[in-house]
Design brief:
The strands form three sheets. The chain has a nine-stranded mixed beta sheet, with helices on both faces. A two-stranded antiparallel sheet has the order 2-5. It contains six helices and 13 strands. By secondary structure, the chain is an alpha/beta fold. Strand 3 and strand 4 form a beta hairpin.
Length: about 260
């Protein structure tokens, strides 16, 4: 089998703060990591590779040159090949334009059975790129996967729902989006790290991927973020002690003052 894993390098949002004046992320001094859900996607591909001799795993990402570090981490975990889509022309792309660029690159790769993506990226939380890639490629998709079985030319997945789960079967090629319950990502090994820095991370720019310039970047993005801000902290609440008639009346009076009744 030939597996493709889409990953993204993101700032560690635990340490990210917003500039109150500009509303932009303060990235100085903030470490970049592989998006957590994408690591689960990569681990699942590597698990399938371990169980099926001859399987290859290609990692694909779009981002600036610094994403090379994330690509080499994926190689150190066990991926066979890494391709980084990096060009100033791709900058400013929203989820739709991003999925178009990635899908076009996958068409160039051409041969694949399963595409793995993380459910969503922690710097955007849209959960849109994976499903949009599947739509661009016109292949089936199974999202929010917490358990996956591969048999022949089919996959069977258990999808996590708010109040339970559903079981879905699909023929390959298929796109899967992974959630953290799917597995526990493995660590890099010293030998893996050593080998990762001997391998080539292929960089594909605008001239390498046959995209329509009208469909990428800010020009090709149907959505844009107008403003980003941190909500003001809420004031302290009021505690009313007691369970008598006067306490209940006091509660209703307070709610009425705030026009909540």
């Amino acid at each position: 089998m030939k597996l493709i894993v889409c990953i993204k390098q993101v700032p560690n949002t635990v340490e990210v703060k917003l500039d109150p004046a500009t509303g932009r992320l303060i990235r100085d001094g903030v470490p970049n990591i592989i998006n957590p859900d994408d690591k689960n996607a990569l681990e699942e591909a590597l698990r399938i590779k371990d169980e099926n001799p001859g399987t290859t795993v290609t990692v694909l990402s779009m981002g600036p040159a610094q994403a090379d570090v994330a690509m080499r981490e994926a190689l150190a975990m066990g991926a066979d090949e890494a391709i980084l889509l990096s060009d100033r022309a791709f900058g400013g792309s929203d989820t739709w334009a991003t999925s178009y660029i990635i899908a076009t690159a996958i068409k160039k790769i051409n041969d694949f059975d399963i595409i793995f993506c993380g459910r969503q990226a922690i710097d955007g939380d849209t959960a849109q790129v994976g499903p949009q890639i599947a739509e661009q490629l016109n292949i089936p998709q199974i999202t929010y996967v917490e358990e996956l079985t591969v048999s022949g030319d089919k996959v069977t997945a258990r999808r996590k729902l708010e109040e339970g789960y559903s079981v879905v079967e699909a023929k390959m090629p298929v796109l899967i989006t992974a959630i953290k319950e799917l597995n526990t990502p493995r660590y890099m090994t010293p030998a893996g790290i050593f080998d990762a820095y001997k391998k080539e991370v292929k960089v594909w720019g605008f001239d390498d991927v046959p995209v329509d310039p009208e469909k990428i970047g800010l020009k090709g993005s149907p959505t844009n973020v107008r403003n980003t801000f941190s909500p003001d902290a809420k004031g302290h609440g009021m505690m009313l002690d007691g369970a008598d008639r006067m306490t209940v009346k006091n509660l209703f009076d307070r709610l009425d003052e705030k026009h909540l009744l």
